[in-house]
Each structure stands twice: as structure tokens, then as C-alpha cells.
Automatic annotation (TrEMBL):
Keyword set includes Transmembrane helix: yes
Localization per record: Membrane
Protein known as: Capsular polysaccharide synthesis enzyme CpsA, sugar transferase
UniProt key word Transmembrane: yes
Organism from which the protein derives: Sandaracinus amylolyticus
Topology class, membrane: Multi-pass membrane protein
Chief localisation class: membrane
Length: 471
């Protein structure tokens, strides 16, 4: 299964963080001024000054909890832009709550307020995009670069070198690998890439002379004594030192650093939807799910009538499936078969299945039978995007046959998913088909992002593969 390495992560703040705070403050104030101008308000009032100052203060406080002002060097721009929105969105109810408690809500134009709420984060995102593009250009020209050394000719070290070499916009110049082993004991390094240039002693001495800005230690976990000795000696230099432990031998599922009290820990299997990301995901489901439900309501009414008129039985079909954390939930669908199986054995639909009703074939191929699950999305037991829920009987069968199968339940099941838009839906008559579905489900959890969700929704509507094996 594909692994998300995440080798280069945010590392610090410094002057850049101060400039970012200043830029965000300007964007918030400018957004309010533009909104007031758009509303054609004649005079600037004391209330306007208080509102902007409160917004700036609230935003900067929330930003400290979301980690917005860390250094984003080496992190894709969509992640930073998502963090901007994740920081701004909580500020909105805070401001509205203050206005309500002080009975000042009538003093502000609704149009101007909504305009402000949209303009300011767009401005902050635009500033970051321009800054990123400018820095990328400078770094590709060899400016604003850091001299980097990699300690350890290991698989994880080669992955790090490849990532840096193919990403000149990171502004990192690899001096080479440093390893105490003799060349005959080292794996062969690709030509045209960083090569072995010295030993541990060499990297220490060059760091002391100021020739190296950053040292990445990419030694295996079993090399703890050598790592400790190297860290002790590098402490006598001003080089920044980073440890790149090979946690990826564990096939991480959204692995990340956190702490338990003052004890640092790293997650091996974790959900991406904690904290701000969880709020964003829920907000996405409520807003887009409600809109989809309103648009789909006429279709659902027509389909309900047709089902009732063309076959005997209920309009809806309920089936027990596994939801978040493996809890059993009841999933609603339009009935498309003459049977309603939900026992210890559930037979999957096959091509030209005689159990499928005339209207059932059409609504299954077009996924209209899944539309009632929008109620689950808005209600909170499902999400718009996520691994498709399987019948309990199928879960119990495949969890014994596919390693990591239950990890797909670290997130809410979805109305659509990454596996479905890649053609891995419908009948899983071979173990390989189910393995490919699970592989895509876990890849979705590792790669999750708001823009990734929107892309999957787009492919669900317009993609070619989504209707494969739909019968």
C-alpha cells in the first residue's frame, strides 16, 4: 500500500512568523474597510474600530492553538491555506456572539459583515500564495538556500535526498551523505544525486566551521547509541539538527507528533479529524450535505413514488453497517431489490442479478439509491466523503483476511470515496478487488485534505470510473 512519508515538516517561526502576523492583521482590517466601502457606509465609526480589533485579537489567539505561524517551508501550500481557513472560521461565531451579548448586532450590515468574513481569509490566502511563488522563484535561482547534510546512507536517507533534490523550491542544497561505514558496506547511491562525502566526524567538524546549516540524521531506530553520541557532538555547533527516524517501517496511518503531558509521542494509527481539521470536516458535511439534500429532494420524491408503484415492499431499505470506530449504524438506501438481506450472510449484487427491480437497475447505476444517506451526512453518522460502509457480514469476513482492514473505520463512512471514483466499487468477487478498495480507503485517510474531498466530489459527479461495476 502507498505510504505517506511526510519527511519534511514545519520547523519553526522566527521573523517570518512576525511578518505573517502583520500581514494577516492588515488583511483583516483591509477586508473590513473594503466591505464597508462596498456597502457604501458614509463614516467610519467607533464600532467599526472595535470590531476589527476584536477580530484581529481573536484571530491571533486562535492561530496560536492551530499552529498557523510555524514555518511552512517544505509543506504543500494547500495545507497552509486550509489552516488559514481553519483559524478564521472559529473567529466568526466568536464575533457574532460578542455582538449578540452586547446587543450590537443591529449596528452592523449583514451584507457588509458576510463580505468581510469572505474577503479577509481570501486576502490572507492570496498573500501566502504570492509569498510562496516569490520564494519558490528565488530558491530555484539559488537564493535563500540552506546547506544540508544527511547522516546515514539508509533507505529513509535516500528518500529524504530524493525529496529535496526534486524540490528546488525548498531552498535546500544537499552537501552529501555522511556515514562511518566503508564504501563496500554501503548501498549504491543513484548517480546524479547526493553522494558519500565524509564520516560522522566530518559532519561534526564542518558544522562547527559553519559550513552546514542543517543536519538530518537518518539512522535506523536500533542506532540509538550512535545517534546520542552524534547529537552530543553536534551540540557544540550552531547547525540545526533534525532526526528522521524510520517510523515508516510501521506503515503509518496519519502518523503525527503529539504529547501526553510533557512526554512526546507519535501516533502510528490515527484519524486525521482531530481539532481544527475535525471542525472543518464537519462544517463541510453540514454545509455541502444540506445543499445536496435540498437539490436532491425533488429527485428523491419522484424515485419514492416510482418504487412504490413498480414493486411490492418498502420504499427504503435499512442495513446494519460499521461506522466510525467500528460502531454499528443503520444505513438508509432506496430499495432496489426484491429482497432486504441483513443477516449473517449478505450476497452482493451481481451483473443481471434477478433480485434487482426494473427501477433498481437504473438507480443503482446512477447511485441515486444512495441519496437517502444525505440524511446521515447532515445528522453526523456519515460523511460526504470517506470509505464506503460495508454490511456487517462483509466486515466480519474481510477483517480476518485483509491486514489493516479495520483501520478504514478510523473515519466516518462516506457517501462517496476515493476507492469509488477510481473504479473499485460494486461486487468484490475476488479478494484482490477488496484489497484494492481497502488500499484506496487507507490512502484517502493518509492524504486527507479539504481540497482532496472537493476533488473526490467532483469526480463522483463527472468522473468516468465512478460508474464501473455498478449493477
Amino acid at each position: 500500500m502507498a505510504r505517506k512519508t511526510g519527511l519534511i515538516r514545519p520547523t519553526g517561526g522566527g521573523n517570518t512568523a512576525g511578518l505573517a502576523r502583520l500581514a494577516d492583521t492588515v488583511c483583516i482590517i483591509a477586508g473590513y474597510v473594503a466591505a464597508v466601502w462596498f456597502y457604501d457606509q458614509a463614516d467610519w465609526r467607533t464600532d467599526d474600530t472595535v470590531a476589527t480589533l476584536l477580530a484581529v485579537l481573536a484571530y491571533l489567539l486562535v492561530a496560536e492553538t492551530t499552529g498557523l505561524y510555524q514555518t511552512w517551508r517544505g509543506v504543500p501550500i494547500p495545507k497552509e491555506l486550509m489552516r488559514v481557513w481553519g483559524t478564521w472560521v472559529p473567529v466568526i461565531p466568536m464575533l457574532l456572539g460578542v455582538a449578540f451579548l452586547l446587543k450590537l448586532s443591529e449596528e452592523f450590515s449583514r451584507v457588509a459583515t458576510i463580505t468581510w468574513f469572505v474577503l479577509s481569509p481570501l486576502a490572507m490566502c492570496s498573500v501566502r500564495i504570492v509569498a510562496r511563488l516569490t520564494l519558490r522563484r528565488l530558491r530555484e535561482q539559488g537564493r535563500n538556500t540552506r546547506q544540508v547534510a544527511i547522516v546515514g546512507v539508509t533507505e529513509i536517507g535516500e528518500m529524504l535526498a530524493r525529496r529535496i533534490s526534486t524540490s528546488p523550491w525548498l531552498g535546500m542544497n544537499i552537501l552529501g551523505f555522511f556515514d562511518d561505514r566503508t564504501p563496500d558496506r554501503l548501498p549504491e547511491l543513484p548517480t546524479g544525486r547526493a553522494q558519500l562525502v565524509g564520516t560522522f566526524e566530518d559532519v561534526v567538524e564542518r558544522s562547527k566551521r559553519g559550513e552546514i546549516d542543517a543536519v538530518y540524521i537518518a539512522l535506523p531506530l536500533r542506532a540509538e547509541p550512535r545517534v546520542q553520541d552524534l547529537l552530543r557532538r553536534l551540540a557544540d555547533s550552531t547547525a540545526s539538527v533534525y532526526l528522521v527516524p524510520d517510523f515508516f517501517v510501521f506503515d503509518l496511518l496519519h502518523g503525527r507528533w503529539s504529547s501526553l503531558g510533557d512526554l512526546p509521542v507519535i501516533s502510528i494509527f490515527e484519524t486525521p479529524f482531530y481539532g481544527v481539521d475535525g471542525v472543518l470536516k464537519r462544517l463541510e458535511d453540514v454545509v455541502l450535505g444540506t445543499m445536496a439534500l435540498l437539490v436532491a429532494s425533488p429527485v428523491m420524491i419522484v424515485v419514492s413514488v416510482i418504487i412504490k408503484l413498480t414493486s411490492k415492499g418498502p420504499i427504503f431499505f435499512k442495513q446494519r453497517r460499521y461506522g466510525l470506530n467500528g460502531e454499528v449504524i443503520e444505513v438508509l438506501k432506496f430499495r432496489s431489490m426484491r429482497v432486504a438481506e441483513d443477516g449473517p450472510v449478505v450476497k452482493q449484487a451481481t451483473k443481471d442479478d434477478p433480485r434487482i427491480t426494473p427501477i433498481g437497475k437504473f438507480i443503482r447505476r446512477t447511485s441515486i439509491d444512495e441519496l437517502p444517506q444525505l440524511f446521515h451526512v447532515v445528522g453526523g453518522s456519515m460523511s460526504l466523503v470517506g470509505p464506503r460502509p460495508h454490511a456487517v457480514a462483509h466486515n466480519e469476513e474481510y477483517r480476518k483476511r485483509i491486514q489493516g482492514y479495520m483501520l478504514r473505520h478510523k473515519v466516518k463512512p462516506g457517501l462517496t470515496g476515493w476507492a469509488q471514483v477510481n473504479g473499485w466499487r460494486g461486487e468484490t468477487d475476488t479478494l484482490e478487488k477488496m484489497e484494492k478498495r481497502i488500499e484506496h480507503d487507507l490512502e484517502y485517510i493518509r492524504r486527507w485534505g479539504l481540497f482532496f474531498d472537493l476533488w473526490i466530489i467532483f469526480l463522483t459527479v463527472f468522473g468516468r470510473k465512478v460508474r464501473q461495476n455498478a449493477y
